[in-house]
Amino acid sequence: MEDLAVKKGRKYREEGIRIGLFLCALVSVITTIGIIVVLARETISFFGVVPVHEFLFGLEWRPLLKPKSFGVLPLVCGTAMIVVGASLIALPLGLGSAIYLSEYASERVRNIIKPVLEILAGIPTVVYGYFALTFITPLIRSVLPETQVFNAASGAIVGGIMVHPMVASLCDDALQAVPNSLRTGAYALGATPLEVNVRVIVPAALSGILASFVLAMSRAIGETMAVTLASGATPKLTANPLESIQTMTAYIVQVSLGDTPAGTIEYQTIFAVGSLLFVITLAMNLLAHRILKRFQEVYE
Amino acid sequence: MSGTPKTGTNLEKRRRQARMFRFLCAAMTWLAVIVLAILLVHITKQGIKWVDLQFLTSFPSRFPDQAGIKSALVGTLWLIGLTALVSIPFGMASAIYLEEYAKRGKLSTFIQINIANLAGVPSIVYGMLGLVIFVRFFALGRSLIAGALTMSLLILPVIIIASREAIRAVPGSIRQAAYALGATRWQTVRDHVLPSALPGILTGVILALSRAIGETAPLVMIGALTYVAFLPEGPLDAFTALPIQIFNWASRPQEDFHSLAAGGIIVLLVVLLAMNASAILIRQKTQQGKQ
Predict the structure, then answer these.
(1) Residue boundaries of the structural domains of chain A
(2) Are B122 and A281 an interchain contact pair (Cβ–Cβ within 8 Å)?
(3) pLDDT tens track of chain B, all 291 residues?
(4) Contacts of B106 (CB under 8 A, 6+ apart)
(5) A62-294 maps to which CATH number?
(6) Which domains does chain B have, with CATH numbers?
(7) What is the C-alpha to C-alpha distance for residues A289 and A284, in angstroms, rounded to an integer?
(8) How far is A251 from chain B (nearest CA, A)?
(9) Whole-prediction pTM value?
(10) Angstroms from B248 CA to nearest CA on chain A
(11) ipTM strictly over 0.85?
(12) Is A35 in contact with B121 (Cβ distance < 8 A)?
């Protein structure tokens, strides 16, 4: 009889623990719901004042000074310049490093490079911002003196340095997953290492490589402190990387550094911009997962 | 490969191209090492002259030569301690549930996809969440605990993903042996799976916490102060942190404050280095134990 009571108590305890653990796992779901609700609430009241099309397609962003104007395109343009610049640096460099690490480098070299990439990935973004402001910008200005103190190029370069380790390590994983038989088969047919890599290995790992590219771009979009420090606070539609611009993230920081009372239209703008940022990065992350799933070559 | 007859010169050309390609890839890779070296040298050159005992034990000041990072350093230590207290239990519990309890079904897949996506949300969005929920709704104000809760949500996905990998790496035979001896599920997890997975979990936790140390944007969002001339005494006190102080100094126009920022960065990097070194130490120690 006693044995049975112990067993019963044990069963309740087990069930209690299971439920407790489940509730902890739910925290992440609640976080997502929280993000969506928080962003949507203020954004909806913002769209009560400013029409959606004016926000999405307006050509002028001047929310703090009169006459006010709420066209988000200049901020999107600023972010796009950073992303394009960072991608031009990080994607080829990352893929090149990954090919070297996976296909050429000796174990000894890998043991040096891998930690270096981890360190680069672990350096806080504010440090990169400082580096851009005090090293990269003066460097650009010594070559191109017409460059402004705050400029898109500096933020883009440092953004590229920042996401490069992520591209390198994800591409390295993708290349390593290609079965050795493809390599040996191609070499047996007389291909040179270049031909093996470019025509066999990289195509075989393409899904992983593309996914890493999309994830890196999404990371560059959400990058905040480096572009705030280095690229300025001048929202404008321009394609000149030597000018001061403002990204979506830098705008959010700018407003939150000031004392903007809750409930005002200025306060609501950061949520509208934040929503746009969230939707874009979420779409890109989902796209990356979709690419991985759909185009993955299945090897035995 | 092109179908043209392979002559000697063609082969020579292909080999030359292959050598060039290899060189190019190697150059790209070593560039990363060079960039890291330049970054470290630049920051050390700019900031090392400020880093002394006076810098570590003074409060921020309008005058660069009197300014220090005492309040920022203490604030960061508080923040990380509180973040660890909140995020580690929740992260580990989520990982245990997903790996050891959840049935492979729609709900568990949904939670997994959800966690993967949360890991990709920009940190500034977490800051907005923290501002509205913790600072305003729960009326915690611009306090340490509001910052720590925000940071916890930010690094939770990282901790969960790392912990799950560590738990998954525990061989199934250990679980079966425990069940065979009559252990319940929780006893199996607590006494056998977790001890085996702990080094891996700890490594992941330390890496996640070192990410939190350097995060600036969420703290800016929840309004961590930039000028704090006192030390926080409890979780409800206002605070500043190292990255905030660095950001503040770096965004001023004066040269002297820029190099102060570099001094702050050196302190921040030393803290990060110490944490990463401990993670590596844990990894090595357990690998030795296994051999």
Answers:
(1) 2-49, 62-294
(2) yes
(3) 455 555 556 888 999 999 999 999 999 999 999 999 999 999 999 989 888 888 888 888 877 778 888 899 999 999 999 999 999 999 999 999 999 998 888 888 888 889 999 999 999 999 999 999 999 999 998 899 999 999 999 999 999 999 999 999 999 999 999 999 999 999 999 999 999 999 899 989 998 999 999 999 999 999 877 777 788 888 888 889 999 999 999 988 888 888 899 999 999 999 998 888 888 788 777 766 554
(4) none
(5) 1.10.3720.10
(6) 65-290 (1.10.3720.10)
(7) 9
(8) 11
(9) 0.91
(10) 10
(11) yes
(12) yes
